[in-house]
Amino acid sequence: MKSLCLAVSVLPSVLLPHVAQADSTPGLQSIGLGLSYSQSPYAGADNSVSPVPLVRYQGERLFLQGLTGGVHLIERDGFGLDAIVSGRFDGIDADDFGRSELAENGIDRDLLEDRDDGIDLGLRASWEFAFGELQATAKADVSGASEGYELALEYGYPMDVAGARVTPALKVSYLSDKLADYYYGTLSDEEARGVARYRPGSAVVPELALGVSRPVGERWLLSGEASYRHLPDCLTDSPLAEGDAGQLGVKVGISWLFD
Question: Which residue in 45, 85, 100, 254 has the fewest CB atoms around it within 10 Å?
Fold first, then answer.
């Protein structure tokens, strides 16, 4: 039986977006473009800067919020239950690892395989309270990449500050052993080529964040978020990883609002 590794250190205060709630008005609500920056946990890999589509559509049941879409199953009295599909973009090509950094960890890059991105399918429950918003999500890989699953609990407290919506949030994610092993461990085919076996097992990853959005005029919305994820020792001890346990992420964007 694989062990569960936890992140137990004290985390500094950081930034993440508030929990998005469904809008009652059907149709395309906004469209825009953002930029996302994230630190890579992988040895010798470059940090990522990539464009992010900012699309928000709300139908009678169907919805699309950025890179997550789905169907509203239940909506009543501050409670919602959605079936969701979303992308998981944790993959990396073997050639994107640093050869010298991997060599320091005792791994020949030529013996590694790619880690593919995945597609997750699952359920998301949300509750709105006077003192904040709570989301619980369960999703599993259906693309055949990791074949693992993730459970997450997120709490956000949206506030109106000087005309802006500001939301500090705390999120805790449980990564199953298959999910963590695929992205942070060695694969069976790699071990057959001589790579030393490393399997981190399941992991708990906490995240602190802050999201900010502010309307500009009648049609534009500026948004930004920054986040800090703390990776537990079982993930950072991987021979595929390097650097600090903390991962910073920043997103900024602008959207055009429809009627």
Answer: 100
